[in-house]
């Protein structure tokens, strides 16, 4: 028995009238009668009392028909509910929740979003902002987002990078700074500088930067004169000459008041630069 035939039976059983049932189903009455006969032949029983229909022009369910009506109604309701849930799931799958963290340069947010749009051209990309790169990774673990823009290291073993883009740490100076014309600056040349810093709770590289500065012979922390919560404000304060800052090489510089310079932490090539690998990350399935 096909599901289509079962629905034909249910419509006749509800209407108790072949003509109205056929009209509701948008088929002819003879075609509907033929389908009901095929069901009865397959089952080897009568579902509708033929005697009453012939003698009294009355459609009435047999005991077997009443039993089938009860179970078939429950079955088709479950089937329709399954189809509806599947459709909802399919619709939800077309939306990609893409997490990013507040300090990621907006140009890179746009670049990564375009990359995801290329992967899923028929999907709606919804951006979800987090305070830190770690929070993005936690959002992936909780399945709050589909993909996340973050940076290495990945804190959970079941996270997988779909796309990576290496960057390095550079020094941001006022264009009027004495070192502004240097091509490359050594960290030791900045030992007496005042620093503009991103709030420590937002910046995962803070401790590693401090460690490398101490290796170079100075403590940067006492010389931090201002902490900010956005890259835009940091650039503005550096441009005013309030201090210098360390930022990702991916930061686009469109303000003439600042310059971005290569930075070396050591003469040893292994420790010369501090790499920052930005990535689009997903959660492994299974």
Order of helices and strands: HHHHHEHEHEEEEHEHEEE
Number of strands: 10
What percent strand? 15-25%
Task: Provide a count of the helices.
Answer: 9
Largest sheet: 8 strands, mixed
* Percent helix: 40-55%
The N- and C-terminal alpha carbons lie at a distance of 38 Å
What is the residue-mean pLDDT, rounded to a whole number?
Answer: 89
Ordered list of secondary-structure elements with their pairings:
Elements (H helix, E strand, L loop, with lengths): L2 H13 L2 H8 L3 H15 L6 H7 L6 H31 L1 E7 L4 H14 L4 E7 L2 H9 L5 E5 L7 E16 L9 E3 L8 E4 L7 H10 L8 E5 L2 H9 L5 E4 L9 E7 L10 E9 L3
Parallel strand pairs: 1-2, 1-3, 5-9, 6-7
Antiparallel strand pairs: 3-10, 4-8, 4-9, 4-10
Helix pairs in contact: 1-2, 1-3, 1-5, 2-3
List keywords for this structure.
286 residues; alpha/beta; 10 strands; rod-shaped
Explain what the structure shows.
With 286 residues, the chain is an alpha/beta fold. The chain is 41% helix and 23% strand. It is built from nine helices and ten strands. The strands form two sheets. Strands 1, 2, 3, 4, 5, 8, 9 and 10 form an eight-stranded mixed beta sheet that branches. Strands 6-7 form a two-stranded parallel ribbon. Strand 1 (95-101), helix 6 (106-119) and strand 2 (124-130) form a beta-alpha-beta unit. The two termini are 38 Å apart.
